[in-house]
Amino acid sequence: MDEKRVPLLEMRNIRKSFFGIPVLQDVNFDLYPGEVHILLGENGAGKSTLMKILSAAYRLDAGQIIIDGQEQHYRVPADAQKAGISTIYQHFNQCPHLTVAENIFLGRPPRTRFGLINWQKMNHDARVALSNVSTNLDPRMRIGTLSVASRQVVEIVSAISRRTRILVMDEPTAALSEQEVQRLFELIHSLTERGVGIIYISHRLEELQSVGDRVTVLRDGRNMGTHKIAEVGLDSLVRLMIGRDLHQTHLTPLPADTPETLRVEKLTRRGQFESVSFSVRRGEIVGISGLMGSGRTELAQSIFGVHVPDSGEIYVRGQRVNIRIPGDAVKLGIGFLTEDRLGDGLGASMSIRENMSLPMWASGQGYAYGLFLNRRKERQLSDDYGRRLNVRAATMSLPVRYLSGGNQQKVVLAKWLIARCSILIVDEPTAGIDIGAKEEVHRLLIHFARQEGGTVIMISSDLPEVLKLSDRILVMAEGRLVKELQRIEATEEIVMGHSLQTIRG
Questions:
Q1: Which residue(s) pair with 226 in the sheet?
Q2: For the chain, which end, N or C, has fewer CB atoms within 10 Å of the first or last residue's CB respectively?
Q3: In the CATH scheme, what is the homologous superfamily, with its name and number, of domain 9-242?
């Protein structure tokens, strides 16, 4: 990057506090035209806050935002959009019931001279915009029917159609396959060739050199340094992020005579998975691997009672059970850490303490006298597990939506531990959280299994994570369980090879 060029964006000495607690302290950040500038940091380091200030979702307490050499004082997100700033969040800001074209031009549809929406022009302009990024998506398709990768393309096209000059991408590859990641990188490259500056937030350190030019690391709301990607190693970035080296998490061997806790036999839900059978033992961690659409999540949801299977049987501790709703599963000691922690796993407007205690009330453990809740018990347990899981918050009464992604994940995990579940299903347990929080979640899952005698069923798209934590690995492809691998025989190549199998007949 030619440092003599005028930056497209400068953020100087940015400060921001919430409830009197400093979140950003004199942070500096800049971006050049045609550059991909990566923003790294642990969950809670201040990355999202800095970007929300840039997009005018938050007001800064002190500092300057300068675009093309001119200081900006926009007050609302619409002002930031007019300045050419767009943000693609990890959780898409889309209307699933509307079409691709309607989502691209949401809030600004082309109109006829009579003031009516010009549907023909909207579909035509959407088709042209989509073709500019080499995709053949039909603009008349409903967004809710598209894959995650296709929905992301629509978000990017929507941003480009606003004549975006600064594009913020928050965890854009968190739910993408390797092929989809490469397609995204090609699209990013085409944007930078047009002079678009991209701020790229990711916890996948292994992809940084493939996409980035420079990297800035935040820790505890402070700028720990900016470096050219080619001149800094991954170990150095980790130390800058978390202030220490990572510790290796080891999985000790499981005794062969441990009893079975969960068994499913020929479980089937038409159109999603078929005739799946497996068992899991006390203290065991079983990983379920497979490509998106292989039926992994749908299988977990059926075990937990989110959906009722069409056929098959479920046994818990040797007894056949009938799980029709999630409440049935909770009463049997089954917990489910969902893939969408904020959408399905937490009550965003509720406090940390209330979220932690929800399953306890649902299972009937939290009542003191009749219908009255034991608030003292709730407070004691939530404070205890908050300390044990290192949930970083000023107070447990804070609404959970103010926490970072990693701390929100710890709250979801805490609520099932408080409910004393003995079988824990975790779906993408570390998606979108930083490397330090990921290490903590791994440690907690291993402790739950090995030290507390719990059973863990882990679904993850992160193959190194599956290989690291699993005693056994179940591989799914096209709705079927195609292979069971012991820890000692599993490699990334073998697991991926079975994941790509085509089921015939």
A1: 216
A2: C
A3: P-loop containing nucleotide triphosphate hydrolases (3.40.50.300)
